[in-house]
Write a structure and sequence with these properties.
The chain has two domains: about 120 residues, 3-Layer(aba) Sandwich (Rossmann fold), CATH 3.40.50.10330; about 140 residues, Tumour Suppressor Smad4 (Sandwich). Helices cover about 20% and strands about 35% of the residues.
Length: about 325
């Protein structure tokens, strides 16, 4: 039996810098006695650029997802979402290395890549669990016709630009309001800095377990962002009076058409996504760094020792 550790490498291999980074990671893992694993699509892309990779295994064919210890992801948030999808049926945490622009889900920047691989080999990281969403679409007979999940958000949107979507929102089995709109975003704390943020929803700290609901361009008096508890069930029905159809998008990766009468039911999933963390950075610092927020002129209360103290009264 092969006792070598299996590490999945997920790379957006259409960029030269990402290809170079993937080569470094693969070589480092092989040198440390680990088994680098690639998804079939990633493997084909890298082989087309780097040539044959005889020491690299294929996810699903050579190594089951349950055997993956950790996934190292080279790319932006979209690549990290794809990696979370690849390891969804296993327990492997995801370590993101930002090769894109904002890279809000990423743990480190590309300059720290070599140290990150060393710490992965040494198992020198902690694992943080993030709330995810279970998403079901039901027809007019209340039969489930589609089921998926989301790490960032589930969004009910209008399918035609010129058409308005008529919906009614429900929380915990009780109707809340109906209105015409461009759509409704149901977001996790992880996704609160993504589509939810762009739509005017609140930023939710990862330590807060909650679900945000944000109507998009709603024609209604009561159509403000809502924050509900983590065990709440949110449902969005496409009303029969809608002129056209809607569409469900989850994490911008999985979609399903929503005919009139369709009902999208969103609740907390029993299976979280696990993120590998190398640094105990405060979420506030991550917000400031990723969004380049202006903090010049801040006087405290961090002392020279790094301890948090109260500022002195005048």
């Amino acid at each position: 039996m092969n006792d070598a550790r299996s590490i999945l490498v997920v790379a957006h291999a259409r960029r030269p810098d990402t290809v170079d980074a993937a080569q470094r990671v693969l070589d480092a893992l092989i040198g440390a006695g680990a088994r680098p694993v690639l998804a079939a699509d990633d493997g084909a892309e890298l082989v087309s650029v780097l040539g044959e990779l005889p020491d690299v295994l294929t996810l699903g064919r050579d190594v089951p997802v349950d055997d993956i210890e950790l996934a190292i992801v080279l790319g932006g948030d979209g690549t990290i979402l794809r990696a979370a999808e690849l390891v969804r049926d296993g327990t492997a945490p995801v370590l993101g290395v930002n090769m894109g622009h904002v890279g809000f889900l990423a743990e480190i920047e590309r300059d720290d890549l070599d140290d990150a691989v060393r710490r992965v080999i040494a198992r020198d990281y902690r694992v943080e669990e993030r709330l995810t969403l279970q998403v079901r679409v039901k027809d007019v007979d209340d039969e489930v016709i589609y089921e998926t999940w989301a790490l960032n958000e589930a969004t009910v949107e209008k399918a035609s630009r010129e058409r308005m979507l008529e919906v009614v929102m429900e929380v915990d089995g009780r109707p809340l309001s109906s209105f015409g709109c461009d759509g409704v975003v149901v977001s996790t704390p992880t996704g609160s800095t993504a589509y939810n943020f762009s739509a005017g929803g609140p930023v939710i700290w990862p330590s807060v377990e909650a679900i945000a609901v944000v109507p998009l361009s709603a024609h209604a008096l009561f159509a403000k962002p809502l924050v509900v508890g983590p065990e709440a069930t949110v449902a969005i029905e496409v009303l029969e009076r809608t002129n056209g159809i809607g569409i469900l998008w989850c994490d911008g990766r999985r979609s399903h058409d929503l005919p009139r009468g369709a009902r999208v039911v969103v609740r907390r999933s029993e299976r979280p996504v696990r993120l590998a963390r190398l640094h105990p950075a405060a979420f506030t610092d991550r917000l400031v760094r990723k969004f380049r927020l202006p903090v010049e002129g801040w006087r405290g209360p961090v002392a020279l020792t790094g301890a948090i103290t109260r500022p002195e009264l005048p």
